[in-house]
Amino acid sequence: LKVDASSQLARKIPDTLFGMFFEEINHAGAGGIWAELVSNRGFEAGGLHTPSNIDPWSIIGDDASIFVATDRTSCFSRNNIEDGKTYNLVMYVKSAEAADLTVSLASSDGLQKLASVTVPVAGTSNWTKVEQKLIAKGTNRTSRLQITSNKKGVVWFDQVSLMPSDTFKGHGFRTELISMLLDLKPRFLRFPGGCFVEGEWLRNAFRWRESIGPWEERPGHFGDVWHYWTDDGLGYYEFLQLSEDLGAAPIWVFNNGISHNDEVSTAAIAPFVKDVLDSLEFARGSANSTWGSVRAAMGHPEPFPVKYVAIGNEDCGKKYYLGNYLKFYNAIRESYPDIQMISNCDGSSKPLDHPADLYDFHVYTDSKTLFNMKGTFDKTSRTGPKAFVSEYAVWRTDAGRGSLLGSLAEAAFLTGLEKNSDIVQMASYAPLFVNDNDQTWNPDAIVFNSWQQYGTPSYWMQKFFRESSGAMIHPITISSSYSGSLAASAITWQDSRNSFLKVKIVNFGSDTVSLTISVSGLQASINALGSNATVLTSSNVKDENSFSNPNKVVPVTSQLQNAAEQMQVTLAAHSFSSFDLAL
Ligand code: AHR
């Protein structure tokens, strides 16, 4: 494997190349990264055919004598309550007669009380906001929040919330999940979906306006594509905040008047266009502007730097896509000339018939096909808009619940994107998260439940690429009888102290391969001290991680004693290796 590391043939990779796509799918947000422990906190959760209900709350105690006015109630189970941790309770209560309410964190059978507080409610027809801190005196992985009264009578509740007090930066995000994201150094965050943005029907699509302002006032909505209710605590503002907290450029995917089953005609799209312009003013406007002032009131007077928007998701070819697209495109270009706009139409093999800065490219396929797709952008025209590979993954037949095999094919595909990063500007794996209690889409990069999390091999694979954004890419050639099952790339990059040459090689085949890596054209010599080899492999290519064995397939780093301009390396069968050579 020859690397020409001379500066003449080097090319800078875009600073934005590798980032993340966050979709509200698999309870990635509600019941996931958003740390709220209560579901349906306003008792308004609905579904396709039930516009409002209070599921998953339910009656505890003597249900023969307890009458719940809204049909059903329940306490949210499957929560992790940790010993010594503080939980902030907020709820709104109204009762015509005075009563003492006891709010507890209990085991799912109600027998073990981890924390309890008694709240007197005065007899009044006004709503009262109750705020309490509950400090857990024990740990329970399947805990519930329960509310009981010392008297019979009518008590009204609304907006019952329980948040752990130790969320990331106090912004409401689960710290341990955020740290897994930070480890990948994402350069952008595409949000909030996917199909979640579209909805099966427009009435159930994500609406940014309904997801901002005080959380108590957000109506929430039923995501009908992935079939669950979200209180929209993780709303448009919180997504922008999340981008900032991750140091990632926000990419706002907005609904373009098209869902899976219905469309707004171009003749009627004007209010939707205005709505999107308002969303941009909310993000970017000064604190004195109409919508910027709403953002400022929420605690962020400085604008959020939205520089990219996607006009819909996977809607190219639908009846009103192009017409609607052009209305959005022209209006945004006029008001925000610097915003880059992403079309849903694939321009990788033929030019687009409409203006765009980037086009979306999605691929979910089997491992062999994705491995072979590493050259997808080799022949793409260099003059048109750039590609945004905003969703890629191996799925179905050989994906398992996230296998080594899938991750190797994905890694090969990414080396192809690095090489074509003069035309590919961004790429992100999908989906990012799955709550193990409700998996809609398989596989995913990060699996979690109420108290544990692990990365699938696809997660760890992405870590090999975290230095690529903004690095220099160098030409390589491979001459080997195994070259058909190899994929590789070489970059130089630097951290705050040192420079490195990083050679990544995927061995997709079932034979061990010996290679000589020869590097020419370096300005500095390779230093064995500080040089490492990191390998992702396992005894079986179908191996996966799990809660019981989260580290079965994870990268292993060792010192590279023989690091030099010419060095012999051995690639294990079905492996991904990164040779990090200190300069
Ligand atoms: O990533 C899951 C789904 O796949 C996304 O919502 C959609 O864009 C694609 O079809």
TrEMBL record:
Short name of one Pfam family: Alpha-L-AF_C
GO biological process: L-arabinose metabolic process; polysaccharide catabolic process
Keyword annotations of the record: Hydrolase, Signal
Key word Hydrolase present: yes
MF annotations from Gene Ontology: alpha-L-arabinofuranosidase activity
EC number from the UniProt entry: 3.2.1.55
Broad class of enzyme this protein falls into: hydrolase
Catalytic activity: Hydrolysis of terminal non-reducing alpha-L-arabinofuranoside residues in alpha-L-arabinosides
UniProt domain Alpha-L-arabinofuranosidase C-terminal: residue ranges: 390-575
Superkingdom field: Eukaryota
Assigned protein family: Belongs to the glycosyl hydrolase 51 family.
Protein name in UniProt: non-reducing end alpha-L-arabinofuranosidase
Organism in which the protein naturally occurs: Triticum turgidum subsp. durum
